[in-house]
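Running this now, will post back.
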Amino acid sequence: MFRRTTALWATAFLSIAVTAEKSFAFRSGPPAAHNGSTASGGATCRVCHGSASGGGMVQILGAPAEYEADALYNLTVRVTDAAKAGAGFQLSVETAAGAQAGTILVSDADNTQLNPNAGVVWINHTLAGVDDAVANWVAMGNSAEYHLEWLAPAGDVGPVTFWAAGNAINDDDFNTGDVIYLHNQSATFTEDVPVPAVSTWSLIAMGLILITAGTVVIGRGAVAPKRIH
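Update: finished.
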């Protein structure tokens, strides 16, 4: 009986230790494909952290409503929750079919890292990123911001969707007591309309207009405009 009880306690302790270890490992970055995207198959960080609701949100700032070929966009993932103490995130940009759309670039190697899986690249927090979020949470208005860049595709790949998951944490290194926020927004392709070329005769005509407008005619003579230094 004593041996059985001891074995049960050992199993329970091991289970708790594994849970804590997993949670701490996710502090260094979640597994890929857990932001609710098409390529994720709808899977989210809630499979580990639960489905608790909260009064916060996750936002994708800087994402265009229309993307241009080969254009570079600065994005910010912002996680807010007045009842929590820090946050992590995960983001991907995908076509309607769940394929990689454009290229995600790391602009802050200390706080973010790429997380590729099966032909799609996710980007998420690092351990230093979460530690920084916790340290500056109150100063940032109970929020954390993660910065990255997105290089749009070289041509029209149809509508693309930015998928983000934000994990607002209570900072106890366990996977309980956290809130997972989800958000997505789409962009359609737009042509980069070039500025019409100006002909030589148009330039000459514009020059004559400027000269005429800048010259004050007095009788038969002409006085150049006064230069103000």
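The chain has one domain: 2-189. More later if anyone needs it.
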